[in-house]
Amino acid sequence: AKVLATSVDENIKPKMEYFQRTFALDAEEAKSLVLRHPILFTLSIEKNIEAKLEFYSELAGKAVAKEAIIENPNLLLQSLKKRLKPRLAEVEEQGGKVRWTKTFLFRMALRN
Prior knowledge:
Distance between the termini: 31 Å
Helix content: 55-70%
Number of helices: 6
Strand content: under 5%
Number of strands: 0
Radius of gyration: 15 Å
Mean pLDDT: 86
Oligomer: single chain
Structural class: mainly alpha
Largest sheet: none
């Protein structure tokens, strides 16, 4: 059996500070975000969150990317290699021009 053990000083506090700083959230907003989506504590800031924020920012701009992630943190759970980049390639292969809004980010990342 696996036991979930999380260090406040090594995991929770740095992630709370990261979400506040990066996404311009106050303490209550950051707390609400991670209470609604506690899986965020399992993600690596450097390897996961920053990489996804950069990917979405390149498509839609940093402000839209941040807003989309705050609205739907499940965007951070998608694999860049297995899901997001192949879907982007699929869109680009179609040759269409896409104005990347939150809605298109959600559709690309979260569709089945």
